[in-house]
Amino acid sequence: MGEPDGAGAAAWWSTPLGQLLAGLGSGAQGLSPAAAAERLRAGGPNSLVEERRHGWERQLLAQFASPLVLILLFGALVSLALRDWVEAAIILAIVAGSAILGFVQEFRASRAVAELQGRIALTVRVRRGGEVLAVPARELVPGDVVVLAAGNLVPADGRVLEARDFLVSEAALTGESFPVEKQAGEVAADAPLAQRTNSVFLGTSVRSGTATVVIARTGRDTAYGDIAARLGTQAPQTEFARGIHQFGYLLVRVMIVMVVFVMAVNQWLGRPVLESLLFAVALAVGLSPELLPAIMSVTLSRGARDMARRGVIVRRLEAIENLGSMDVLCTDKTGTLTVGLVALEAALDADGRPSGEARRLAHLNAAFETGIENPLDAAIIEAGRRDGITTAGWRKVDEIPYDFLRRRLTIVAAPEDPAGLHLMITKGAFDTVLAACGSVERDGSARPLDDAARAELERRYRAMGEAGLRVIALARREVPARSRYDRADERDMVFAGFLSFADPPKPDAPETLRALADLGVRIKVITGDNRYVAGHIAGVIGLDHGTMLTGAQIAAMRDESLWRLADDTALFVEVDPQQKERIIRALQHRGHAVGYLGDGINDAPALHCADVGISVQGAVDVARESADVIILRHDLAVLRRGIEDGRHTFANTLKYIKITISANFGNMVSMALATPLLPFLPLAAKQILLNNFLSDLPSVAISTDRVDRGELAASQRWDVGEVRRFMVVFGLISTVFDLFTFFLLLRVFGADEATFQTAWFVVSLLTELAVVFVLRTRGPALAGRASTLLAVSTLAVIAAALAVPWTGSFAAAFGFVPLPAGMLVASVGVVLAYLAATEFAKRRFYRPRR
After folding, report:
1. Which pLDDT value is given to residue 618?
2. String of b and e for 540-555 (b: at least 16 CB within 10 Å)?
3. DSSP strand pairing (199-200 vs 328-331)
């Protein structure tokens, strides 16, 4: 990979810091609010993508971008050239009406979504005007001074002004898995990105420590922005979006065949070319669900608003459908299945006795740590505050940060009175701390850590875990005085004791798990905690803990073995971040739609690869920005309601597609078959367009419709095969009744062209509208009540359809005439018979397959 900074770009990482600050017009206290606002106006937002304000003009014009609409507009121009003013006006009016309908819905939906997403926008602590303010990351400008801490995402490229134990993960840019320590200073202008230790870059994340940084480059001018521009970036498609595209290709094939067939037949019959072309195009328009983008926008944004009211914020609208299809949810236990209020239960020596020395060592380690804030450290510091323990008399010398391979953190401290030796204090996972020890503290002295002593410590550790306590270990060592220490110094330590923490299960956890099971969602716990405490919690809340895999077992497995075992395993314990990702991919390989709930730095890989990444509002930046969905309360009950909303949204979107496409398909097949059999067109192009426009009006209300309980109780997956079968079965039922209507009108009533077209316009529109009440539910049509808005809007258009032939000049403009009473009664009878046949077919279509 070449250098991300373009040729000739100023090497700001090598410029003397004072000179860089002067060039940026900034200082240690940053910019004034007025200067920052002016730079934002001049340089634009801190965004990788060029942000265009999609105002109403752009959204309105987008409604006319369809090739079919452009063909209709061309037809209107031809009509104008031929001075057929009425035909041209009708086409233009219907096209404009459809465009305005779609525009209004999409514009309102986009406004609602922008408002929701603004509630969870990434913010950065910035020094402006002598204060530290929380500023949206997109409003950062060169010259801003930002304050970064563990868990933060780096919001732009910049130079370190000052740092304390500041380690940054640059894997996204350099591929280096271990964090890199950053500090103030200068590096050579030709230093590669991985060696610019005085700079931080957009797309990386802070693993530990704190720093203040002056921003030098934002948005597309950053190293990450340059890479993104060259590689191109696009969010992965959801399963539902892929299904929509597959179905779109099917419609295009059907349209091409139908248009070519109709044009060929009309030319063979010697009908006018323009009339035949407009008729064929109108057929194609009639087959396409052209309001689908608007319906999807409305349905998804409505779903997002409903979810927001229940405490679930959607960052990416398309994730709503994946939330509905989710059938496995992977989660940590802390704060999800437990109350999340961690308290230090006891500090014990190696013999299991309460120990003031263990409390003191733990307090020094937690108080001096500058890594990721975590509830264990908070509990240690709170207990020390109550017991009057302080860091007085000690100063911090160095820190060896926590990582997910060592699973421990070390602090080196020195007494204020120099004594020649420093004190190294390590706390972390029991097995990794024990591995760093060569002796154990007993009765104030260090004893060799032999096999018997190890076995006794392991027995005590296991007993506390099986009692439901989370346990970490402590070790200490006096080391020669130096200013820097590293991982190699964590050796020959003295095992100093245990820290046990209580975090009891939530009282409602068993009920929540049962509710999720009723929705067809299985819970799998993936945790770094030890097997004993995880097994205890699982047993208390009713989760199957007989099936368990440890991180060590997973590490020794081939992917094929994990694919086989993951499905039947409920507990994955003692795992690292990469193993979390492997587990999720294994479940996906088994055909599951997998959700992952996490809030820490170590959860980012799993959140990225899950079908639905879920985090909480208080999560670290890197987790929150990796997620598709944010829950405002760390509670599975909130997520359960979000899943129901996702399924409701999925079901109503699919409902629109099925109902509209089957009705349109039936009508279009009928007209295509009727073309060579009738001495005239079954409907004029303008009549088809009016039919399509009126039938679309109630469709927007489908987003408000009720959904069958059965559809909420199981995960919903896109099945293009089922949609195709639905279209063919119910479309051809419509065609059969259309052909019967043709026979009735011609042979029984002897209808002329205008009467035939009027009668069939009414019948086809009534069938397309009334069938909504039958096909909107899988159960009996009369047993399920449609939403008020859907019912009222559909009945209103039905009334309009019946009234159209008697609307005088409006009817005349479209070529309609009043219908004889007998013909109107017969038409209504055909519609009722069609609805009865559709209800019968629906029950057979949805009956359980053996």
Report:
1. 73
2. bbebebeebbbbebbe
3. unpaired
CA distance 220 to 225: 4
Q: How far apart are CA 368 and CA 431, in angstroms?
A: 23
Q: Class of the 1-62+100-204+217-234 domain? A: mainly beta
Question: What is the full DSSP assignment across 334-357?
Answer: TTTTB----EEEEEE-TTS-B-HH
- Decide: 579 and 549 in contact? Cβ < 8 Å: no
Residue 505 DSSP code = B
Residues in the chain: 850
> What is the C-alpha to C-alpha distance for residues 414 and 586, in angstroms, rounded to an integer?
48
pLDDT of residue 300: 76
Q: What is the pLDDT of residue 67?
A: 56
Pick the CATH number of 247-304+643-845 from 3.90.1590.10, 1.20.1110.10, 1.50.10.100, 1.10.510.10: 1.20.1110.10
Q: Which residue has the tokens 């399963």?
A: 239
CATH for 343-501, among 3.40.910.10, 3.40.1110.10, 3.40.50.1980, 3.90.950.10? 3.40.1110.10
Neighbours of 272 (CB within 10 A): 11
Distance CA 267, CA 815 (A): 23
**Tokens 């801003």 -> residue:** 144
Three-state secondary structure call for residue 45: coil
**Among 147-161, 291-305, 749-763, where is mean pLDDT lowest?**
291-305
Assess whether 84 carries a catalytic annotation: no
State the pLDDT confidence band at 75, using cuts at 50, 70 and 90: low
Instruction: Kindly state the average pLDDT of the residues 552-566.
Output: 93
The pLDDT confidence band at residue 391, using thresholds 50, 70 and 90, is: very high
Q: What residue ranges of the chain are covered by domains with CATH 3.40.1110.10?
A: 343-501
* CA 589 to mean position of chain CA atoms: 20
Please tell me which of 86-95, 112-121, 261-270, 605-614 the model is most confident about, judged by mean pLDDT: 605-614
Architecture of domain 312-339+506-632: 3-Layer(aba) Sandwich (3.40)
CATH 1.20.1110.10 residue spans of the chain: 247-304+643-845
Strands (E), 416-575: 421-428, 437-442, 445-448, 470-480, 493-502, 522-526, 548-550, 571-573
pLDDT tier at 773, thresholds 50, 70, 90: very high
| Start-end of CATH 3.40.50.1000 domains in the chain | 312-339+506-632
Using CA atoms, how far residue 629 sits from 345, 348, 507, 573, in Å, is 34, 41, 25, 25
Contact 362, 427 (CB under 8 A): yes
Pinpoint the residues of the chain covered by CATH 2.70.150.10: 1-62+100-204+217-234
∠ CA 191-196-197, nearest 5°, is 145
7 φ/ψ sector (left φ>0, alpha ψ -120 to 50, else beta): beta
Which residue in 143, 130, 131 sits closest to 35, CA to CA?
A: 143
Number of other CB atoms surrounding residue 652 within 10 Å: 28
Three-class SS of 139-158: HCCCCCEEEEECCCECCCEE
Nearest to 790 by CA among 710, 707, 703, 731: 703
Q: Could you tell me what percent of the chain has a pLDDT over 70?
A: 85
* Catalytic residue from among 332, 349, 576, 628: 332
Predicted confidence (pLDDT) per residue in 44-54, tens digit: 888 875 544 45
Average pLDDT, the chain: 84
Q: Is the dihedral of CA 200, 206, 208, 213 positive or negative?
A: positive
- The yes-or-no verdict on residue 78 having pLDDT over 50 is yes
Question: What does the pLDDT read at residue 101?
Answer: 64
Tokens of 848: 């359980």
The per-residue pLDDT for range 687-702, each reduced to its tens digit, is 887 887 788 888 878 8
Q: Which residue has the tokens 């670290």?
A: 620
Residues 112-133: tens digit of each pLDDT? 656 655 655 678 999 998 889 9
